[in-house]
Amino acid sequence: MFSSIREEELNKCATAIVNTLKSDNIFKKSVIIGPTDPSVVKVKDYYRKLVYIKNANYDILLDIQKKIEEGLGSYRNVGAVYDFN
Questions:
Q1: Sign of the CA dihedral 76, 6, 35, 54?
Q2: What is the mean pLDDT of residues 61-76?
Q3: Are 4 and 13 in contact (CB under 8 A)?
Q4: Most buried pick, 16, 22, 35, 55, via CB within 10 A?
Q5: Coil, strand, or helix at residue 21?
Q6: Cis peptide before 38 (omega within 30 of 0)
Q7: Which are the contacts of 23, defined by CB distance < 8 A and separation ≥ 6?
Q8: How many Å apart are CA 85 and CA 77, to the nearest integer?
């Protein structure tokens, strides 16, 4: 999940990161859904976007997490939360 106090920057960041992941050959076998709005878009002045990523290989999920962190570097007001289930 991505979150930010700035909705426009959040949308731009989430879309850019998902497009980067989808275009990377390493992650072709991953199922990437999103970015999409959660049932409650804004909580305590923070906008949220969901991205679902599915892959059987845990190491690939960790590589995806690193790639997301690299992508967040240029978006100072956007944060990410990960749930590995």
A1: positive
A2: 89
A3: yes
A4: 35
A5: helix
A6: no
A7: none
A8: 26
**39 alpha-carbon distance from chain centroid:** 17
Is 80 in a helix, a strand, or coil? Answer: strand
Using DSSP's 3-state secondary structure scheme, residue 42 falls into strand
How many percent of the chain have pLDDT more than 90?
48
**CA angle (12 as vertex; 29, 32 as ends), nearest 5:** 15
pLDDT for residue 29 is more than 90: no
- CB of 8 closer than 8 Å to CB of 54: no
Per the document, the length of the chain is: 85
Find where tokens 């878009």 sit: 41
Average pLDDT over all residues of the chain? 90
Query: What percent of the chain has a predicted confidence (pLDDT) above 70?
Result: 100
